[in-house]
Amino acid sequence: MKTRPFEIDRWAVWEAWQKVRSNQGSAGVDGESIEDFEKDLKNNLFKLWARMSSGSYMPPPVLLVEIPKKGGGKRPLGIPTVSDRIAQMVVKQAIEPDIDKIFYEDSYGYRPKKSAIEAVGKCRERCWQYNWVLDLDIKGFFDNIPHDLLMKAVEKHTKCKWHLLYIKRWLEAPVQSRNGEQTERPKGTPQGAVISPLLANLFLHYCMDSWLKLKYPQCPFERYADDAVIHCRTEAEAQELKERLGKRLEECGLQMHPEKTKIVYCKDTNRKEDYPNKKFDFLGYGFQPRETRNKKGQYFVGFTPAVSDKSSKSIREKIRRSKTLQATDSEIPEIAKELNPKLRGWINYYGKFCKSKLAETLKAVKVRLISWAQRKYKKLHGKYQAAMDWVEKMQISRPRLFVHWA
Question: What is the DSSP letter of 328?
């Protein structure tokens, strides 16, 4: 009986499918959804396993989808097909346990048992200890990772031929737009691909993290994928680090964004100097001097995080676009049912630090409810105060209707 060149456990393919299904996600270039794939699940998984085991599996193009960024502009995402996501998950789950062990504690992005809010908390703590921050932005990071250097990094951690074969094929798979036009990718790994976060972390581990630990061990950092903050003791140290790190990134085929990368002074009650840059954003939080109160009730200025202006604007826009709030035939329980999952997510993330700033943002719900009530009820048409009274009475009588009311 002829054996297949690669020994791939069928159970690994099944486990990968379970993970992809739980993550959901949209269809790729073939238009096949999770539900469509599941209709003939046994055959689809067998065909994928057989092709991967024989070495004949060729990844289809990734679908180019552009999503709006909080700060304006578009972010390109590459969406693989469902079967390709499963194939990538097979490889990812095989190599991730060993690769993740080499990453530093200060790398938080897309790692098991790590979170963005942990990175924000650690950044907050270090901003109290260090006077200066290098707020780093890498220009088009995912689109510009050199394939040759990335494969060298991968080869340090797996000698398995089918791991290397398929990772190389995924890196080289073209991008396809909605109109069917294909573009080759001589560099980069698409955001949206299952294996891309692990590959990106591995590349930055060697390109930046290890370099920082060797050259600037006195400058701790927090990194979430390509979003990084590095802490410095003096302005001169921050300036030197910015220059040298810029050169290091260029050696690795990347570019420090000349406008978005900046040096920030962590001004507070005890740090009274005045510099142009006194705030930065990190993972949806805005870090800046804020009046705060200690346990004794005394007020002071601290350099602390709160939901950023960009994030606040995005939250208000999502509330404004609520379908039930726009429809006069909606009832208030329907509005609550639509908004509460979003509200819960915002509170769980942005409510960790400086809750009062988030509370200000979530007042947009009340404003929209007042507008909705004026349009829905004839007796409230054109009567802002009466509509506001109606909403406030609703809040008193049903305090658990909306998550943030409770």
Answer: T
Interatomic CA distance for residues 368 and 349, integer angstroms = 23
Helix 41-54 vs helix 82-100: crossing angle, to nearest 10: 60
- pTM beyond 0.85: the answer is yes
Please tell me the distance from the alpha carbon of residue 180 to that of residue 366, in angstroms, as a whole number. 44
Helices (H), 259-354: 309-320, 323-326, 332-350
**Local structure of 307: helix, strand or coil:** strand
- How far apart are alpha carbons 287 and 270 in whole angstroms? 16
Name every residue whose Cβ is closer than 8 Å to that of residue 124 and which is 6 or more positions away in sequence.
Answer: 287, 304, 305, 353
Give the integer Cα–Cα distance in Å for 132 and 271.
11
Q: Which of 124, 145, 150, 280 is nearest to 226 (CA)?
A: 145
Residue 70 structure tokens: 């909080």
Name 285's bridge partners.
282, 307
Q: What is the pLDDT of residues 41-76, one digit of tens each?
A: 999 999 999 999 999 999 999 999 988 776 667 788
DSSP letter for each residue of 180-226: S-EE--SB---TT-TTHHHHHHHHHIIIIIHHHHHH-TTS-EEEETT
What distance in Å separates the CA atoms of residue 65 and residue 78, rounded to the nearest whole number? 6
| SS3 of residue 131 by DSSP | coil
Count, residues in the chain: 406
Given the structure tokens 């009986």, which residue do they identify? 1
Report the distance separating Cα 124 and Cα 352, nearest Å: 12
CB 185 within 8 A of CB 176: no
Q: What is the pLDDT of residues 190-239, one digit of tens each?
A: 888 999 999 999 999 999 999 999 999 999 999 999 999 999 999 999 99
